[in-house]
Amino acid sequence: MARTRTTVALTLLIAGAAALSGCSSTVALEPAPGADDPRCAEVMVRLPDDLGDQHRRWTDAQSTAAWGDPTTVQFACGVPPLGPSTLPCVTVDGVDWVVDDSRAPLYRITTYGREPAVQLIVDYDEVSSSGPVSAVSRLITQRFEVTAQCVAASDVVP
């Protein structure tokens, strides 16, 4: 009888663990080349658990994060800094961001003139980019060095 109870308890424990692990799988991402920058670690520990109604999920790469199930927002710190670009640039909470919508509705939004550089990939059909961009901007404003700023195309001398 004791053996039967142990077997039942063990079976329930394994089934419970399997059910819990199936609720939210780990998001497979690639680390950026500069993911080991200590400033990325400073930001990682401050990232929010939720972006609106999107809950944070585990990722398998250093200095990355993801929200939503399925994933609607991805974060990577330590991406290569952008050079001059003709893509639109917006300033949010003191941080310049270059917006690449060439794969819309997936928007690739990358900091400009900050080191290390940060990149967000946002599924614009599911979530507005303003929330994630603002949340990350507040975290990097004082922590990441400013090396350049966006300028209007009319201000550039050929």
Tags for this model:
globular, two-stranded antiparallel sheet, eight-stranded antiparallel β-sheet, 30% strand, 158 residues, 10 strands, alpha+beta, 3 helices
Please sum up the structure shown.
The protein contains three helices and ten strands, in the order ααβββββββββαβ. It is an alpha+beta fold and 158 residues long.
Please explain how this structure is put together.
The protein has 158 residues and is α+β, with helices and mostly antiparallel strands. Helix content is 24%, strand content 30%. The chain is globular.
The percentage of residues in β strands lies in 25-35%
Element-by-element helix/strand order: HHEEEEEEEEEHE
Radius of gyration: 20 Å
Annotation field: number of helices:
3
- The beta-strand count equals 10
Largest sheet: 8 strands, antiparallel
Helicity level: 10-25%
Ends apart, CA distance between termini: 86 Å
Shape: globular
Weakly predicted, low-confidence segments: 3-22
Q: Numbering strands along the chain, what is their spatial order in the largest sheet?
A: 1-2-3-4-9-7-6-5
Structural class: alpha+beta
Instruction: Please state the average pLDDT score.
Output: 86
Question: What are the SSEs and their pairings?
Answer:
Blueprint: H1 2-21, H2 38-44, E1 50-51, E2 54-57, E3 64-67, E4 73-79, E5 89-92, E6 95-103, E7 106-111, E8 114-115, E9 117-123, H3 130-140, E10 145-146
Antiparallel strand pairs: 1-2, 2-3, 3-4, 4-9, 5-6, 6-7, 7-9, 8-10
